[in-house]
Amino acid sequence: MKQEGKKEQVRKMFNSIAGKYDFLNHFLSVGIDHYWRKKLVNMLKPEHPNQVLDIATGTGDLAISIAKNIHRANIIGADISENMLEIGKQKVKKKKLNKQIQMELGDSEQLKYNDSFFDSVTVAFGVRNYEDLDLGLKEMFRVTKDNGSVYILEFSKPTVFPVKQIYNFYFNYILPTLGKGVSKDQSAYTYLPESVKQFPDGQVFLNHLSSAGYKNVKQHKMTFGIVSIYSGSKNKNQKSNK
Fold first, then answer.
1. pTM for the full model?
2. Given pLDDT bands bounded at 50, 70 and 90, which one contains residue 65?
């Protein structure tokens, strides 16, 4: 996917696969994506956040998990894909979480929320889709409260043999074939491995978080380094690095 117009291409792509997204997400990850999200929620839970912004919320899986496990949290799930949000709204209504979760159309690089509004900002498998990564991270920092936190769940690049080899084969050959067969959208599941390859994971991404203003940035690797949870905090009286 070309960098030029990436945001619009991502929006159209996710709109086209929205109806099959949840099935493919759980099927292609062999259901382990539930564990990854639960791990993020368990890291967030001790902070007892009142206001949470879940960016690139998609169909709301992470927002729903946060609501179920942190009952005091009010969550806004923001995404640029109208079709994904519509499915998310249906899921939230079905689970009777309307009072906790509000699903809204939103651009990660132009957040409409006030400065220092959210106790925590979360993203699951979304930052690699940002058209301008640094701008998106700075916007996240801007809306984070003093002493607030960020938690980002994203694919990593495993380095250990034979996990690296199996992972690359699956991502490059198996996943696109299965994804195309179910969703009928080949671009969506060829884009996924491409976006993971291009994403600056590990220490490089931690440097991006630091540049945005976050302190105490850390990487928590899971499942042999296939995914990572990145975390950071906004210390009191900090200002965004613009």
1. 0.92
2. very high
Helix residue ranges per DSSP H, the chain: 6-28, 33-44, 61-69, 82-94, 133-143, 163-169, 175-183, 186-198, 203-212
Band (190; pLDDT cuts 50, 70, 90): confident
- How far apart (Å, rounded) are the C-alpha atoms in residues 157 and 199? 9
Q: Phi-psi region for residue 116, left (φ > 0), alpha (ψ -120 to 50) or beta?
A: left
Q: Percentage of the chain with pLDDT > 70?
A: 93
Q: What are phi and psi of 172, to 5 degrees?
A: -90, -25
Residue in the structure block whose two tokens are 């084969």: 169
pLDDT per residue over 142-184, tens digit each?
999 999 999 999 999 999 999 999 989 988 888 878 777 777 6
C-alpha distance across the termini of the chain, in Å: 28
CB neighbourhood size of 68 (10 A): 14
d(CA 40, CA 186): 30
| CATH of segment(s) 6-158+200-233 | 3.40.50.150
* Phi, psi at 17, each rounded to 5°: -105, 5
The C-alpha atoms of residue 233 and residue 213 are separated, in whole angstroms, by: 9
